[in-house]
Amino acid sequence: MKSLVILLFSGLITACRGNSSYSLPPKLLLVSFDGFRADYLQNYEFPHLQNFIKEGVLVEHVKNVFITKTFPNHYSIVTGLYEESHGIVANSMYDVITQKHFSDFNDKDPFWWNEAVPIWVTNQLQENRSSAAAMWPGTDVPIHNTTPSYFMNYSSSVSFEERLNNITMWLSNSNPPVTFATLYWEEPDASGHKYGPEDKENMLRVLKEIDDLIGDLVYKLKMLGLWENLNVIITSDHGMTQCSKDRLINLDLCIDHSEYTLIDLTPVAAILPKTNKTEVYNKLKNCSSHMNVYLKEDIPARFHYQHNDRIQPLILVADEGWTFVLNKSSLKLGDHGYDNSLPSMHPFLAAHGPAFHKGYKHSTINNVDIYPMMCHILGLKPHPNNGTFGHTKCLLVDQWCIKLPEAIGIVIGVLLVLTALTLLMIIMQNKLSVPQPFSRLQLQEDDDDPLIE
């Protein structure tokens, strides 16, 4: 009996510890391939990525945040916040009070980033750990006076190989250890804009290059002995949709440019009126049937895109595939930024490592759910966020998760068992309560005498 108790206790300890790799500080690498539309996985072949998925997990669609642009969604992934909460509301922004401008080429001012705390900052401040980054948006900015311990200043000219070499070096040789790292690559976004996602020939070439880079990543991690103990998440910020010169909304045909300042153009135009806001709104409202025009206070609640001073008084949202232009604007054959309910705007998520199941597929999560999951993997206390950890539990080996069909099956099974037990008890009670057949009283020989004489 004593031996049995010891054996059971040892088993419980092992189960609580989970994978043996958790005896070491957990490590996580977050990789983004910009503009990787979810259904590319169904429409093209990715042998390296599919091998990665077979040994890990796949989320087929990740619902991103509105607006579906690069800077806002990359910051939502690492903060778990909607854009109105973390403050990076577009790729181009203007702050009325400070009169500061933010753009792809002017993004280094911490003022824009300090409304939230990204996970690489939390990772360094909560524990004696280091973070590292290769080009992820915001990682080269001192957010709350903190940058990753190791990072690269953004430059699109730096090759993927160089970025990967730096990240793997920092993951392998750093003290204190790098436990969280990010890696960013501009493709297939750049080619999606240039050719459009429906250009099969060019996108086939570009996506094959992406798959080869994933193969290089896995090979490098295996060569350095990082593969078995490192958790790797591969995802993206948004998808891409096809545009056309036949689907243009020319704002100059609707309103004189002197009446407003254009903060951001397409497919979500941010308008700062110079004259009466209502007049500007009315002119734009009748501009085209292929867009929605919102006063800031009337932006649909489902966008979570209202409660921030950086969101302009008027927001124009083009229909999918339609493009806002001015008279001198150039056209992109592919674009993103549209309504985040559109499947074409959704990326995917694949993950591999000791924290994740093997060979598991999940239909959808929100990209703000990635942050609490990453905090759980790293053992960090998350900052307040808009994500839901329960949405990602089924991806993780240390979480108890029952999917809806299984839950329904268990409930039905329990009800059937309870019903059978109830019927059995009723039958047994009925048997016990049935009266015995009447039998005549047998008298003894000496009992013949009458009781009363």
UniProtKB/TrEMBL annotation:
Give one GO term, molecular function aspect. Answer: metal ion binding
What highest taxon heads this organism's lineage? Eukaryota
Keywords from the UniProt entry: Blood coagulation, Cell membrane, Disulfide bond, Glycoprotein, Hemostasis, Hydrolase, Membrane, Metal-binding, Signal, Transmembrane, Transmembrane helix, Zinc
Question: Does this entry carry the keyword Ligase?
Answer: no
Q: Where are the transmembrane segments?
A: 407-427
Q: Which cofactor does it need?
A: Zn(2+)
Q: Which family does it belong to?
A: Belongs to the nucleotide pyrophosphatase/phosphodiesterase family.
Query: What name is this protein filed under?
Result: Bis(5'-adenosyl)-triphosphatase ENPP4
| Biological classification of the source | Eukaryota, Metazoa, Chordata, Craniata, Vertebrata
